[in-house]
Amino acid sequence: MPIRPSHHSARLSIWQGQKPNAFIACFLSAVWVCAQSAWAAGPEGTAFQSRASIESAAQDFLETHYQTDTNTHFYINPIDPRLQLKQCDQPLQVRSNNLTVPRGGRITLKVSCEGSNPWRIYVPARIQTMVNAISLARPLAPGATISAEDLTTTPVNANQQVNAYLTSPDEAIGQIVTRPMQAGQILSQQDLGIAKVIHRGDHVTVIAGTGNVSVSTEGVAQADAGVGQRIMVKNSRSGQLVEGFVRDANTVVIK
User: Fold this and answer.
1) Going by C-beta distance under 8 Å and a sequence separation of 6 or more, which residues neighbour residue 93?
2) Using one digit for the tens of pLDDT, what is the confidence trace for 172-184?
């Protein structure tokens, strides 16, 4: 007499088979999703502050306090994904000890929650402001006088420049370089010197007086000097030494 399987045995065979049927697979997937959601929420359903909200608060602070122009960009270091901070029930507070952009453009912000579950985190960031700085289009030797053809522009991060860079060609044209310079180098005031238009022994006109009343005489330069610089001149008639400012290659003015 054949033995018929019971309902219990039939149900058991579903689980003891090599592969679960489609219904079981869907059931197990649903259980896994629920488990993942429970783990993400933390013990007892604790809600954690999202990394995106912390980074957004830091970004808003940077744009409000350090935005100089449209060429200023901010880069926030990614927050460790393992960090778990309880959800803040108040708006996040962001503070910085730097009133201005620090040298190098690197800054650290303190993001904190002052709600019922207080916490704080320090978020590093980088500020980048791109400018077109004056640079050399070709190499120049020490003592070379700079012309417009010698100059070009190079985009640089202003926050990473140690020396004061030039932004206008007029700041460099007519001056001399004080050291060997290569093509592409950014020019700063430390690289430049005033071109000497008067040299020791040159005969110059010395003008003294103010307004409409002035007198002039001839003199001999006692040193090298550029426009606007002080220079000692020996009066050709009296032999007296006087000090004045160089107006141009032929004139010294006593003020």
Assistant:
1) 111, 112, 113, 114
2) 998 899 899 999 9
Identify the CA nearest to 111 among candidates 87, 88, 95, 91: 95
Residue with tokens 């002039």: 216
Tokens describing residue 51 = 């990394």
Q: How far apart are CA 185 and CA 108, in angstroms?
A: 31
Q: Note the pLDDT tens digit of each residue in 72-111.
A: 999 999 999 899 999 999 999 999 988 888 878 999 999 9
Structure tokens at 111: 């993001």
Distance CA(82)–CA(39), nearest Å, equals: 13
Do strands 225-226 and 106-113 pair parallel, antiparallel, or not at all (unpaired)?
A: unpaired
Contact 84, 42 (CB under 8 A): yes
Instruction: Domains for the chain: give ranges and CATH numbers.
Output: 51-129 (no CATH), 130-193 (3.90.1210.10), 196-254 (2.30.30.760)
Q: Model pTM?
A: 0.54
Strand, helix or coil for residue 141:
coil
Tokens representing 129 are 């402001």
DSSP class of 86: B
